[in-house]
Amino acid sequence: MNGSASRADERLAAGAAGEAERVIDRLASRPGGTELLELASERAGVALVGGSVRDLLDESRIPRELDVVVDRGAHELAAELAARLPGNEARMPETTEHERFGTASVKWIYGRIDIAERRAESYPHPGALPDVRPGTIGEDLARRDFTVNAMMVPLGRPQRRELVAVEHALDDLSARRLRVLHKRSFIDDPTRLLRLARYSARLGFEIEARTARLAHEAIAAGALATVSGARIAAELWLVTEEPTTEAFMILGELGVLEALSLPAPFDAALLNDARQLMPPDGVADIVEMGVLFHPAREPSSEERRAAAQLMEDFEFFAGTRAAVLAGAFDSFALAAEIESARKPSQLRAALAGTRVEAVAIAAALGARRNPEIAKRARRWLDELRGVKLQITGADLLAAGVAEGPEIGRRLRHALDQKLDGEIAAGRDAELQAALEAQT
Q1: Residue 60 burial (C-beta neighbours within 10 Å; 0-12, 13-18, 19+)
Q2: Please, which of 166, 212, 345, 370 could form a disulfide with 416 given CB 3.0 to 4.6 Å?
Q3: How confident is residue 3, by pLDDT bands cut at 50, 70 and 90?
Q4: Is the pLDDT assigned to residue 6 strictly greater than 80?
């Protein structure tokens, strides 16, 4: 064992036997827990680790997934576990592997189990992906982000039912506090700044004073600029999966948003109001990302171009970039168009073809000066956009209308009259309206 491994192992603390028992008892009741414990009894070196241990120690929480470490053979364990887990005709357990880090995942109908080989990490330079090598228990825990995530419960004998944790882990869990493991944590891996906000919001944990200071110092030193845009974006998309807006607000308070050239503070009220207007077919994370990029005041074309470039740096797909830009930057003009649209047909002219996420954000923004904007947008989203004609272009062709743009213009005229209640219901009335449309 080298010197660093020895020091890492010396800083471990053993938890009370009752804590480990509680973790294993709750694990056995979770999907996949029984199968995992059975496999652990057949092979040495299998342990539950990280957020799984944290959440199983807290009776009020349920782990999102199970995190497992093994001495070696992560891929083999994943394959054995997948063979034992239940599935159905639509989806059988499937495994994925990551050779560089010696990790594997098992996904099945009830969730996910992540398996990693115990390792030590070193960073060739700030913000880089780590170099990894096989490590001890102490080194594996020491590479983690926060003390409350640096706990381990071996599941196989002879160490089974012993909880092992880094210094302060159990005290911090009890105090509901987030603390980094060492002073270079945010420099080595600045994505931990985003995870700090995410965990604080999700768990309701306060940020320990020294950890907050280290976060501010890392941001001031430009740590986030050392990380690729794709890795930053991956963390931001994870924030959109959180159930509340608190994580984005914490990112603003820490100075992360400003450091990333994103608007600050985060407009949580705009997001909450837009969520209320969103129809079921809307994409929630597009709305959240649209609000994240939403400027505080009507932007210039240069600001829009800068935001588009930032999204490109974040490696957004082209379709995603267009959707987020529409939500963030078209809202001011859309709100004005909705306000001036007195008739349903005018709403159609303003909003047809516009993504529902952009409409929701625009309506939430416009409602701050005129509540009627939200009412009209809600009517469009919930009712009017679903109104269709019974007739088609084929009916007009059969009635003698020449093929070409005139077909579409006449159909739109008939639809507008239907929306505005100016024609009777039925195919005959629609056809008559289309045929009588002025050329």
Answers
A1: exposed
A2: 345
A3: very low
A4: no
